[in-house]
């Protein structure tokens, strides 16, 4: 059995998983931000009537 060397750093899989998680969080944030902008715009339109 091979012994693992004590290397510092991240594996490619760990980096890909971190990037995928960040991408999912960014998509969720953008979607909720767009809803907030739309609600604000709609409220301004109602106030202008």
Automatic annotation (TrEMBL):
Which Pfam families does this entry report, sorted A to Z?
Answer: N_methyl (PF07963)
- PROSITE patterns, alphabetized: PROKAR_NTER_METHYL
Chain segments annotated as transmembrane: 12-37
Per UniProt, the keywords (alphabetical) are: Membrane, Transmembrane, Transmembrane helix
Q: Which NCBIfam families match?
A: IV_pilin_GFxxxE
Question: Any idea what this protein is called?
Answer: Pilus assembly protein
Q: Which organism is it from?
A: Candidatus Roizmanbacteria bacterium CG03_land_8_20_14_0_80_39_12
Q: What is the lineage of its organism?
A: Bacteria, Candidatus Roizmaniibacteriota
């Amino acid at each position: 059995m091979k012994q693992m060397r004590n290397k510092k750093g991240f594996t490619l899989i760990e980096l890909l998983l971190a990037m995928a998680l960040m991408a999912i969080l960014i998509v969720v944030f953008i979607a909720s931000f767009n809803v907030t902008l739309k609600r604000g715009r709609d409220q301004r339109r109602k106030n202008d009537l």
